[in-house]
Structure formats: structure tokens, C-alpha cells
Amino acid sequence: MENRKLKNSELERKSVEEFKEAQKTPIIVILDNIRSLNNIGSVFRTADAFLIQKIYLCGITAKPPHKDIQKTALGATETVDWKYTENTLEVIRKLQEDRVKVFSVEQAEGAVMLNDFQPEKGETCAVVFGNEVKGVQQEVVSASDGIIEIPQLGSKHSLNIAVSTGVILWDLFVKISSHTSRNSYFSH
Hints:
Elements: H1 16-21, E1 25-32, H2 37-49, E2 52-58, H3 67-73, E3 82-85, H4 88-97, E4 101-105, E5 112-113, E6 125-130, H5 138-143, E7 146-149, H6 161-177
Parallel strand pairs: 1-2, 1-6, 2-3, 4-6, 4-7, 5-7
Helix pairs in contact: 2-3, 2-6
């Protein structure tokens, strides 16, 4: 049979323990007041796929365990390290004190288009994703080290938060992997 679909048992996925022990991609995700439980679950699943360091759930963002988060996370809340913090600005300031560069994903003055953005080698970066209606809070955008915008060519003004997270994390994963031994991931 040509181009046979692989069975789950053939995918060589990590166990929860192997995931916890694995070297993580130096990316942190910050969810700023995300309302949709399904979107939160999707972010966890995407973070699992790219071995993301941590997710911060801020403000009204719901936290596990919750059946609607679990429905889309498919167990990723057990693998990806996460923490709830009420105030997004506090998270950003603490990360910046720890020399993490924080970037809001938003349409704003001074934004760098994702295709032009290049994370610095050896640096951990955090990306902030905002509310489904209002986006990232202005005070969070202002406190960020920079702004990344996903280029869009159609008539709509935004992408779903789960889609935006997938686009950003894949792009950053590829760029960071070009700096490290993670290139072996692409020789599947």
C-alpha cells in the first residue's frame, strides 16, 4: 500500500514522563483573558506538540481540570507545565526580570510581521495571546518588548486564538530549531 496512514502506535510519541523530562523549546505562552474553553484546550495541545516550556493562564482564562478544556486538550494539560496568575502584567514583569523577551501577538503600531521576526539565538521568548474579542490588553501590549503580527491578506481582521497560536508556535519552533540540534525532528 502506497502512502499508508500511520497507526498511533507507530508515531513514537512521548509518554507523560518522557515529555516532562524532555528538553523544552524555549517558548512560553501567556493567555490573556481567553474566554473559550475549547481555545484554551487547543492551545495546550499545540504547546504539547512543540514541547513548549510553560503556559501562563491569566485573568478570566479558565484552568484545568475542566471537561471542555480536556475535550480539546486530549491530555495535554497533564504534560505541559502551566500556572494560573490573575494579573498578566505581573507575569510579564517577572519574566522580563528573568531575561525572557515578551512579545504580544497583536495588530499594533510598530508590530513586526511574523515572517520578518527572528528570535535571538539562545534566548527564551514569551508570546502573549489575547481575548477573542478585544485582543491583548493595551497595557500588556505597552509593557511587551515587542509586537508580532501575523500577516493576513483577506477581508477579516483577525484569526481565531487557537489558529493564531498554532501559526506562531510553528513559526517560532522552526526558527529556533534552525539554531539547535532540533533539526533532527524534521527528518521524520
